[in-house]
Amino acid sequence: MSIPVTRIVLPTVAVMMLGFAVNHVASESRVETEPPPPATPPRAPFGLSVAATGIVEARSENIAIGSALPGIVAEVYVSSDRVGSRVAAGMPLFRVDDRHLKAQLAAHRATLRAQQAQLAKLEAMPRREEVPPIEAKVRAAESDLVLTSDALKRELSLRNRQVNTEENVVQRTTSRDGALHRLEQARAELALLRAGAWNADIEVARANVAQAQSVVDQDLVEIDRAIVRAPVDGDLLKVDVRPGEAVSTAPGKALVMLGDLKQLRIRVEIDEEDIPRFRANRAARACSRGDASQTRSLRFVRVEPYVVPKRSLAGETTERVDTRVLQVIYEFEDIRGGVHVGQQMDVYLDASTESQISE
Length: 359
Hints:
- The protein has helices spanning 6-28, 99-124, 131-160, 166-195, 199-225, and strands spanning 49-58, 63-65, 71-76, 86-87, 92-96, 227-229, 234-239, 246-247, 256-259, 264-271, 284-288, 291-309, 324-332, 344-350.
- Helix 2 (99-124) packs antiparallel against helix 5 (199-225) and helix 3 (131-160) packs antiparallel against helix 4 (166-195).
- The protein has 5 helices and 14 strands.
- 38% of the residues lie in helices and 25% in strands.
- It is α+β, with helices and mostly antiparallel strands.
- The longest helix has 30 residues, at 131-160.
């Protein structure tokens, strides 16, 4: 006697479906444990606090050094390999091509020498060799006057004896007067020569020398400006310039970034809605992003009273970007490594009334 297939298949299918249903219910009802966060979230160290973000900066602030003159970079004295090293104030950082300035300086120095020579010529007057010819001219005029005076005397004697005419007397008189005027002219020229150059001419020559010297000094200043130097003692934070690159005086790109890393500070931005709860000279602590276990004590330095638009964004979805912030400068009491310029940190400021600290 054979058993129908349906009596075997249907119970088997029913058992399989029941097992699937039981397994599905069991898997859906299992509670999965959440994985731990990759980093411990920061917690406010004070009972009542103001949360803010801050950017680490050098004590001297981050100095973005540019070029005073536009042009092509001819030489870089501090390469990118020296980033992090110490430089002294006045140390050359890089130089812009200044060949045209040096050529201009050579031309202006030649003009200066010509003006100096002209002044020396005026101050040395009279020239020793120029005096004897004028003295001889005076003596010749004196001799001419003696001759014409003697001739006039003879003509007058003849006229008194009514031997000569009046016309001859007039001619001799005119000759004598001409000789007298020529003598006066020669003596005046000798006096002018011995007096030397006119003081006004010397002053004009001195002014020309001073003007030429000022042009040379201006060229020297421009050549010195072609060399960009460190304005203060500090550490190289970034070098973004290479020989052959074109640089301009327009703001925007920091060719060299410099700062004093002996003592780091942090520029804290407090949202405008938290400004009423902020108090200076209160305890403050900062922690790095991703390492909330290590907090660092901060020392209040100053408040920059001008409220500015918010620029340092924390990246949170609830963060407002259309707010304004009050910038407060704090100083790290103890660095102990692990803090870098430009790093963004979470900052908590004590807003209670019990933990006021002294400066």
